[in-house]
Each structure stands twice: as C-alpha cells, then as structure tokens.
Amino acid sequence: MGRTSEGDAVSTAIPVVYVRGFAGRTSGIDAAVDDPFYGFNRGSVHVRVGGSGQPLFHQFESPLLRLMLDHDYELEVHGGQRAWLAEQPDGRVEARSIWIHRFYDVSATTWGEDPERFELESAAEDLLELITLLRAKTGAPRVHLVAHSMGGLICRCLLQKIIPEHHARGDGPPATELVDRLFTYATPHGGIAFDVGFGLLERLRDTFGIAGADIFGPDRMHAYLTPGEAGRRPAGWRAQDLPAEAFPPHRVFCLVGTNPDDYDVAWGLSAKAVGARSDGLVQTDRATVTGAHSASVHRSHSGRYGIVNSEEGYQNLRRFLFGDLAVAARLTGLDLPTGGDLVWQADVELAIRGLPVLLHQRVAAHHCPVPLTQPDGSIPDDVPLLATFLLTDPADRPADAATARYSLHLRVFALRERRGVFDFRDHLEQNADVEDLLVIDLGAHAGALAAWAVWNSELAAPLRDYAPSGAPLAHEPADDGGWAVTIPLPATARAIIGAEAAIRLAITDRSRHSAEDLAQPGRR
C-alpha cells in the first residue's frame, strides 16, 4: 500500500466511499433513497465551453462508471452493499472498490417503518462503522472519502469529532490511520450565507431549523465539528479551519463551483439569494478548507450542469486520488503600479491536452479572479495561482507524444476602484495589461523527470505542431523532496508587472515512478 504524505508514494488499492449531499425534508429524503447509488451514478451531456457560453454536447458517463473504466474499480451490490459486505470473510473483498454511505435510509418513510430523525452526527458515526467494516473485509489500511455538499460536512464531523472522541476513549486509531484522502464537491465548509436579507434569513434558519438546514449555520457547525461538549461558540471560531491534529489539510481537496446561473432549484431563487459569487447555493469563498488543495470549475451546485456529474469534477477527483505529480504554480517577482485607486487581479486557467474542459478556472467573468491587490492595498511579490495533480500515464496522451502537456493561461489586469465602486470610464472590457499562455511539457531526460516550457507568444509555429527540444529547464531542489523551476514572463510582460516577474512551478513526484512512465510514448 502507498503512503499519503506529500512527496511519498501515491496511494493504491484504496476503497472509495461516496457521501451524498443534503436532501431536505422527508419528501426529498424519500426521493434520495430511491437511487441505488445516491447520485454518484449520474452523468451529463451538457457542457459550457468557449466565450459564447452556449451549451455543447459532451457525454460524461458518471464518476462511478468512470472510476470503474479508468481505474479498474469494482462495484459490489448483491441486493444490498452493506449487508453483503458484512457477510464476507475478512480480507477477501477487493480493496479497489466503490461503496455508497446510505445514511438517509433510516430516515425515509418508504420502508414502512417509523423513520428516524436525521442527525448529522449519527450519519458520521455510521460512516465510521462502514470504514471499520471496509478495512476488515478488504484489508486496506484506509479509505478515500468522496463527498458532495453536506456530505463533506458529515466527513468533517467524522474527522474532527467522532473519530477523536473514539480515539480519546482508546476505541480506535486516529483519523489519519482510517482515511487516506478527502475530496469534496461544493461543500459549504464555511456554512451557507445569503447576499440578501441583512442576516435575517440566516437567523430564521438557525433559530427554527427549517427543514434541518440549521446544520449550515455557525452554531450548529461548531457543535458537530468540535469533540466533546462543544459549549458556546467562541469569538473568532472559523468553520473552515480543520485542525491539523485531527486531519492534515493537505490531504483534503475542495472543488469549488462558480456557475450560479444554471442552478434552478426553487425556480432560481436560491441562486439569487446566495449571489453571483457562488455555485447557486454555496458561495465560492465558503467552499474550501483552510490550507487544503482546491480548484474552481464553472459548474453549478447540482442539476444539468452540476459539479458531481461533470467531466471537470471527475478529472480533478481522479488526479487528486491517483495523480503521480503534485504541481503548485506561483506568480513571483511582481512589482505592480500601486496608484491610489488601482486594483490588480489575475485570471488563471489550466488546460490538459486531450481534455475537452478546463481543470481549473478562476476568472473575473465568473466573479472569482485571483486577487493581487490585498484588502490593505498592498501587493505581495509572490502570489499562489493554483495547485493541482497530474497523471503521467502514457495512455492519457496522443500515441506519438513523448511528453505530457499542460497549459496555463494567465491574464493580469487592473481596475480603478473609487470609494468601493469600480470606475469603468477608461476600462476596455476583456482587455488585459498582460496576457499569455504558458505551455508546459513534462517528460524524461537522462533518466530523470524534466520540464520544458515556452510562452505561446514566443512560438514561431502553431501550438499543435510544437514539440519541445533541447535541454530541459534548470531546476533546484525543493524542501519537500521535489524540485522547482522558474520561468520568466516574456519581456513585454515584465516591462509592465515587474522586471523579475516569473511563474514558479514546484513539482513533487508522488509515485516515485513518474520519470519512467513519462519516457514511454502514448498508447492511444
């Protein structure tokens, strides 16, 4: 079995457990339990790409099916997953398998028995029982948790409250020995808040627990994210903080949706109440855990353009769970003009050769650019742009390609802000002070992992005809055992945003075999 700390071998043969999101009232719970896989089996055929935003056809099979097709995961049902699992001899069930945490079943009215009232802590306690059973029956040391929306809060309750309480009583190991990685789709890690109502809607929800939605308010979150008797929520407590002693944030990935317009629940009223900086239900700045990995995709909370049933979501999921390389990109050497009313921002997009969608997209058009000017007006000279995970499998690139290729689209621009309002009198929409595309190839050179990079503005041929040649980029060792490369921006860009402006890539080989794989040509 692999290890999980950054820079150690990537995990293999780990069961995947899916935890669904909030179903609401009893009617919603009854509908949820009718689905044998709680929504993890749903795909889609609509994708919005290009500048027009028009929907195009793209057939995505579902995360459940794709894990089976791409990574040889098995699905055991036999009339009832949990009952079948319990009957199997210890150590005889395939570890590379998918399991659904059906926590809502006991709260449904469709079984002809008195339903139990849904309690988030009970769902987390039952999840611990499922994990314990899976470890015994598969022999796997840990499980991967994959969760949508409220499901991510159930997982955090497990990691921050339920497991620590058991461990303190001497009843089981710590969370790091039970859970390998946690991936969340559109989870309101910071709760759910509204752009309208001046706080009245939140107070009504939290006071009366309407449809059980008080679980998204700060007091209730403090109770189920704190071990023992939580007591009164202290001033300054932040729901998005995950204590490292409970579970390391670097073993968490948060996928953030940025498309509220296609979330049509309650005839679109939810999206209007939450605001433009959201997926229609969860605001973007509340969808991450402090210190965790994250990516943003133009998907809604659920529905036809939902984040779970999307190619973008799946590609981020598989790369976090199984990716060989961890890559972090930073914009360094900034020396931007700081006129009294200038506010600097950056758009960042990450594309991977062979994918019809973007793996990461933070852009002003979706109300989520990377802020360069800080709230106090300062501009740091080193700004994180993205952190992602990449696969080196040669099957995931063209048959004649000797390298894996990625591109980072960067736009840096300034707006004038006067008294909290943007002044567009001298603004040209969709025009940036700096804009270019960094093309990155990863491959093997002299038996070691190597990188080549070129700015699209400096290419003398179409990108499709470009093949890297010559010596790779010079690199230096990084503290985590990986290595880093620095790529200066083109001269025209450095003249505007800083003479030392550059992209710095920190690359960690999680699998310890990436160079060998990258040396092979593709197979498709």
Walk me through the structure.
By secondary structure, the chain is of the alpha+beta class. It is built from eleven helices and 20 strands. The protein has helices at 26-33, 63-71, 81-87, 120-138, 150-168, 200-208, 218-224, 269-274, 311-322, 491-497, 514-518; strands spanning 16-19, 44-48, 55-60, 98-100, 143-148, 179-185, 252-257, 293-297, 325-332, 342-352, 360-362, 370-371, 382-390, 404-418, 421-423, 434-445, 448-455, 476-477, 483-488, 502-509. Strands 10, 11, 12, 14, 15, 16 and 17 form a seven-stranded antiparallel β-sheet that branches. It has a six-stranded parallel β-sheet with strand order 4-1-5-6-7-8, sandwiched between helices. α4 (120-138) crosses α5 (150-168). The longest helix has 19 residues, at 120-138. The protein is globular. The model is unreliable at 1-11 (pLDDT under 50).
